[in-house]
């Protein structure tokens, strides 16, 4: 396997940096840390794990910082992680094999993030691009930066997108553990994204990121506005962010009780029905439009679909909603049967108690 360099950008991360660096020691890789002006013990702590520490004068450009950091590495294969991400699972042998199998593509790690659910703490699973050969790729974008080809003629492309492969590394993302953390990040990003929109013009990806900011700031109306603006530009569904944008738009419409409008998302069924999140969403949309047979069919289809992001959309959540439908139709025995399939899901347990 080509040697890896793990690259990290930091600023005032003394609460996270030691756990982050300790967790990646099994990789036995070079660590390059680029600090952008910490006033706490971040650099002091990092020195226990690497001598490769550099300073970068912050210029409101995340890609510039990442590319500066990658340029300091001894190896061409770069794995970027954030200070609030902790490696929790790694198959080193398989990692070696899979990089050799995909020498011209971008590697994606599995990232698990806390996700606020109704009465429960859920998790969100996303594959995010983090591993690349710096001779072929570079970071672009001042905020919500992406890995892009230096020369598209040198790498395999899927329409207008580079090709990706999944690598056997799983990280836990602690940065979103609290609503306050989510809001702070959204407020930080919002001004920069609005500046990008003014200077660079409409972009589906920028609209998507603006929508995410307003979700974090608990403003579903503005989030829906920006998601719809992005969808209206007809971005290529091969991009994974497009799936999340469409699904997030649907959940915003449900929160706003715009149930009839949400039915417009049926048009994406052929592109997205391999994702449990989308199929589950369509079940909720049909359910809220009193199209119960169609809702039950979608919920049953969602159960067991392996491709998902939000925990529960392919297990207890569709079963719980089938139970709600049967209960509303005056069929308590059928409802209890599905509630019992929800395991320890608290809302289902409450409904069983209420019906017993």
TrEMBL record:
Residue windows of the TPR repeats: 204-237, 276-309
This protein's UniProt keywords: TPR repeat, Transferase
Report the GO molecular function annotations.
transferase activity
The record places domain Glycosyltransferase 2-like at: 5-135
Query: What SMART domains does its record include?
Result: TPR
Which regions span the lipid bilayer?
Answer: none
Q: Does the keyword Transferase apply?
A: yes
What Pfam families would the database entry show? Glycos_transf_2, TPR_12, TPR_8
What is the name listed in the Swiss-Prot or TrEMBL entry for this protein? Answer: Glycosyltransferase involved in cell wall bisynthesis
Species of provenance: Butyrivibrio fibrisolvens
Organism lineage reads as: Bacteria, Bacillati, Bacillota, Clostridia, Lachnospirales
